[in-house]
Design goal:
Shape: globular
Helix content: 40-55%
Strand content: 15-25%
Number of helices: 8
Largest sheet: 6 strands, mixed
Radius of gyration: 17 Å
Distance between the termini: 49 Å
Length: 208
Amino acid sequence: MDALLVRLRDEVSRLKGGLAGREAANAARLRSARRVVSFQSAMIPALLQTAEYARLALAFGRGVDEEDAAKAAAVRVEAQAVLFESGREFSFVLTEGAVRTWPGSPALMRAQLDRLVQVSTLPHVEVGVVPWSTAAPGFPLHGFTIYDGSVSVVECLTGDLTLSEPGELAAHGDTFATFAAAAVYGKGLRDLLVQIGADYQELAIRLS
């Protein structure tokens, strides 16, 4: 437990440079990785976020000003260029709950859905969503991103928690594989996102 607290304090200390500094450090870790897998149960993965979604995600619960959040979002979106580089592999698994959690507005989420569809067509990127109509294989307590199988990063409200113990990595790897097996991909994914997009459009009409 003491080691866990030390790691958490180390990660929180990175916030002293502001959110943009933290995102720059995350971008450097991303550029050094060849295989990245991410499971998210409550939000869109950072690598798949639109600029507006990223700004809201970075600001939530942290008491930062809008300028800091905007700068950090710009760094996060710029780092997404790695998705288009050859020689890398990316796998993303989300719950439908993550796709249906809407910060900002339904219109923002419809743009975010378009982004998911676009990225899912890249040959070295796999995107899957676990539908609510499928029994969950477990309780998705939190999301995480694993870099080259050696480090798993959990994004927290106060900073990032970096895990590297073999047992921790094994637990995250097993969780990813379990939810990945329950997800839909390809046409099934696109059909699901079209339905969710239609629900967002209907919601926007009701709110107007």
